[in-house]
Amino acid sequence: EAPKTKDALPIHRKAPKFEDQSTTIKNVTFEADGINGEACIYVPGNGQRYSCNVTIDSCVFQDSGSTTGDVTAIKQATAGCKNWIIKDCKVKNTMHSLMQVHGINGLTITGCEIESLRGVNLNNSDNVEITDNKMNVEKYAIRTGDSSGSGAGITLTVSENEIISQGVSGDAAIILRTTAADAQININENSISAPTHIGTEGSVNTDNIDINADANYWDGEATPTVNGVTVEVETYYEDSERSELLNSADGTPVNPPAEPTPDPAPTPTPSYGGGGFTGSYNYPANVDVSEGCD
Q1: Distance between CA 255 and CA 265 in Å, rounded?
Q2: DSSP calls for 104-122
Q3: Which range scores top for mean pLDDT: 2-6, 44-48, 237-241?
Q4: Facing residues of 143 across strands?
Q5: What string of DSSP letters covers 9-72?
Q6: Which residue among 25, 36, 186, 207 has the highest number of C-beta atoms inside a 10 angstrom radius?
């Protein structure tokens, strides 16, 4: 049985000499009720820039409900950390969120099951991949960009996820904030169900945001419901299982079934009956007629 704890687990790295070291936290169940820290797992305070190569694997974060959604599972508040992997974790009950992080360069979140008030808040984290997760949240599932500052050139890939957002307080499933102004965002092969699928928060200059959002399920619609941003979509799925890819312009299949190939016509069989040779083809033959014929 996985060990259980009500203690918060800090990750301390205060000097560059620790930047190449790694940390793995695996198979731990965190009880959030009355936990004695900022989050279940956290990088404390400012100046902790060297918490790199961190893997959090197969951990469970749960809350009986007494904290009313105040505790997040994983928190990191200072830019400069690199190469984090969060995989096969579970967030249960009324936890605040799976992650609240700032400026991680290289973050992978995969195979997680998230049932909480919110999903992941990335702020200015870059080179982020969110793949093959199941998220069922009340508010946002994914939020990227800080609330103030200039464009940060964020790259975010969201693929193969099942996302449900209830849209409480008007939140979109995927939210772009102010510093997402120069972001490259790829949203592909997801099932996303929400009152608003993609939206903005605060003052966001969307002119330079590049969003590729093809091949998704948007509650059966050809295009996502958006707020504050324009998203051009060429293909979509009409069903949440994503069984057949359709063209957004007219709803026709992208790869229609091939026309059946007709069976070839039968080849006539020559006959050599009493009436002589019959048939529709000429067949070469070497015939010796020197003795004549009867």
Answers
A1: 29
A2: -EEEEEES-EEEES--EEE
A3: 237-241
A4: 121, 175
A5: EE----SGGGTT--EEEES-EEE-TT-SSSEEEEE-SSS-TT--SEEEES-EEE--STTTT--E
A6: 25
